[in-house]
Amino acid sequence: MSPGSRQRTRAAAVPHSAALDGQDAPSWGTVGDVQLILVRHAQPDKVVTSTTAADPGLTDIGRRQAERVPAALAAHEITRIVSSPQRRARDTAAPTALARDLPVDIIDDLAEYDRDLPAYIPIEDAKTEFADAYTRIKAGLLPEQIDGPAFTRRVLNAVEQLVAATPHTETVVAFAHGGVVNVLLADILGLARPLTFPVDYCSITRILYSRSGTRTAATINESGHVWDLLPRNLARTT
């Protein structure tokens, strides 16, 4: 039984256009909900090989993406910011932490499934350089060498503890990774594939936790604030 399996779940579908046309994101939930806002890291550098675990920082584009997150979160009264220990997540969190004058608390178990690997290839490069791995991920599956159940347990435990430590009515922002966001959504929505959703750089996913234990996926992959800076869209303009 996974950590959260005793909780009730409720999902709300979000029209993708709401994230693209500048409209305010729809809002669900009631007064008293804990709101967990998950932000995927910005675009990181490529690390082809390393003698230790690869831990890249951000590209120039990634830094521009991260600088747009504070404005995208402006409507939310954020009381705490947490981050994965990996540099790409910490660097993405920095502009928001500065804008809110809040510290960034590191939660080790929000690290991505690749945290011990000696290379990091951004997904847009993996399409041509590591076609088999890319095809597997795009099919919604974790890489073969990853212990999927262990990774999922780690993430769900970390999120459960984070939410339990957050007073009701408060909003906490977690800067993390596409795999982290996906396995949490898979647990909430009862999905078979661990990597069901494309999660863009600096995209925002909002989960609401009610006092009764209901978990609601309020929005998934809000990306309008960085739409023009996503690799697939930059490629169209060059």
UniProtKB/TrEMBL annotation:
Q: Which CDD domains match?
A: HP_PGM_like
Q: Name one Pfam family in it.
A: His_Phos_1
Q: What is the top-level taxon of the source organism?
A: Bacteria
UniProt-listed PANTHER family: BROAD-SPECIFICITY PHOSPHATASE YOR283W-RELATED, GLUCOSYL-3-PHOSPHOGLYCERATE PHOSPHATASE
Query: What segment(s) does the record annotate as region Disordered?
Result: 1-25
Q: Which InterPro entries match?
A: His_Pase_superF_clade-1, His_PPase_superfam, PGM_Phosphatase
Molecular function terms, GO-annotated: phosphatase activity
Full protein name:
Putative phosphoglycerate mutase
Membrane-traversing stretches: none
Q: Which organism is it from?
A: Nocardia ignorata
**One CC-aspect GO term:** cytoplasm
